[in-house]
Amino acid sequence: MTAMPARSDTGDPLLLTPGPLTTSASVKQAMVHDWGSRDAAFLAINRMVLDKVVELAGGQGTHVTVPVQGSGTFAVEAMITSFVPRTGKLLVLINGAYGQRALKIAQIAGRAAAALETPEDTPPDLARLERMLAEDKAISHVFAVHCETTSGILNPIAEIAALVERQGRRLLVDSMSAFGALEIDARQIRYDALAASSNKCLEGVPGLGFVICRREALADCKGNATTLVLDLFDQAEAFARTGQYRFTPPIHVIVALGKAIEEHAAEGGVGGRGKRYRDNARVLIDGMRAMGFRTLLPDRLQAPIIVTFHMPTDPKFVFQRFYDSLKDRGYVIYPGKLTVADSFRIGCIGRLYPEHMKGALAAVREVLDEMRVSNGGPALAAE
Ligand SMILES: *Cc1c(COP(=O)(O)O)cnc(C)c1O
C-alpha cells in the first residue's frame, strides 16, 4: 500500500455503509454549541426541520412530521404501535431484515399480524397481496419497506399504495433508506404514515427518527399507543400545545439536521440528492462488474442506495482480509446479511461523490491483486 488512505473532509475513513454515514464538516460543525430544550433559537430550528420534512414529502397542509428521539427503528416502532389499534391487524410485506423487524415489533406489541414474504431479491407479489386483502377482512393496515436496505432492492411503493387504497386499507411505509433521495410524493402516493430518520439520505447525524403522518389518520390514533415514549398522537398534541418535546430532545442532532437540510436544498433537493446517488451507484456497479463482481439484483430492481455483490468464489478471496485492507485504505464497506446468497454490500449514500467511488474501485483492485484474486465473480473464471 503506497498512497495515503482516503479521508472525509474531517479526516475520517469514508463510510460506504447503509448508515450512519459520512457527513459534511459543516453538519458536524453545527453541533458545537449548547442550547436549552426551551431555547427559542433551538425551537425555531426544530420547527423549520419538521416543516421542511413535510415539504420534502409533498405533504404541506395535509401531513405533519412527528419526531421520535432515537434511531430509525424507534420511529418504525412508534409508527406501528401508534397507528395500528389494539384491535387492528397488520400485514407486513417482507423481503429483507427490515420487514422481518416490523413483524417482530407488531408481535411484541401484541398486535395481530400476518406476513407476505418473498425472497430478498424479489419484490412483493402484488397479486397475492390483493388476494390476502380480499380474503382477510381483519387486516386493517399494510406495512411496506420502500428501499429494503438488506439487499438494496427498490420495492414498488406506488403500486402497493394504489392497491392498498383500492382495497380500503391503510398503508404504513418504512422509507428510512430512501427518503430525501428517492421521490415519494404524498400527493400521489397515499399513506397514513411514513417513517425515516436524520442519518440516511438527509445526511445528518444519527439520533432522530421521524414519522410523516397524514393529519386525518393521526387524529384517529388517540389511545392506540402501547408505550408512553413512542406515542405519536401524544407527541403531536404536545407540539400543538407547547411547541416542545415531551422528553429531552437530541438537540445537537436536530440542529445538525437543520444544517443538513439546508445543504440538501442547496444540492437541488430530492432530485439533486438522488442524482448524485445514482451517479455514485452507476460508477460503482460498472466498475465492480468490470472486475468480475456480480450484483445480486438486476439494474431494474436496484435502488441507488446500497449495492449487494455476490461473494467471489475464488478460494484465495478472504472477506475479512478484503474488508480490513479496504478499511486501511480509507473505505469502510459492509458485510451482507442475506439468506439467499453469501454477499457483501457497498453503500452509495452520504457525503460521497463519484470520485470517492472511483477511489474505492481502485482500492478494491489493489486488494484483489494483493490476494492474487484475478476475478471477483461468484463463479471461477477460466484462467
Ligand atoms: C436504517 C434502516 C432502518 C432503521 O435502522 P436504525 O438502525 O434503527 O437506524 C429501518 N428501516 C430501513 C429500511 C433502514 O434502512
Structural features, described:
The protein is of the alpha/beta class. It has 2 domains: 14-22 and 268-371, Alpha-Beta Complex (Aspartate Aminotransferase, domain 1), CATH 3.90.1150.10; 31-265, Aspartate Aminotransferase, domain 2. 39% of the residues lie in helices and 16% in strands. The protein has 12 helices and 14 strands. The protein has helices at 25-29, 40-56, 72-83, 97-108, 126-135, 157-166, 215-219, 232-242, 251-266, 269-290, 319-328, 354-371, and strands at residues 14-15, 63-69, 89-94, 112-117, 141-145, 147-148, 153-154, 170-174, 193-197, 208-214, 306-310, 331-332, 334-335, 343-347. It has a 7-stranded mixed β-sheet, with helices on both faces. A 3-stranded antiparallel β-sheet has the order 11-14-13, covered by helices on one side. Strands 1-12 form a two-stranded parallel ribbon. Helix 5 runs parallel beside helix 6 (157-166). It is globular, with a radius of gyration of 21 Å. The structure holds pyridoxal-5'-phosphate (PLP).
Concise description?
The chain has helices at 25-29, 40-56, 72-83, 97-108, 126-135, 157-166, 215-219, 232-242, 251-266, 269-290, 319-328, 354-371, and strands spanning 14-15, 63-69, 89-94, 112-117, 141-145, 147-148, 153-154, 170-174, 193-197, 208-214, 306-310, 331-332, 334-335, 343-347. The chain is an alpha/beta fold and 383 residues long.
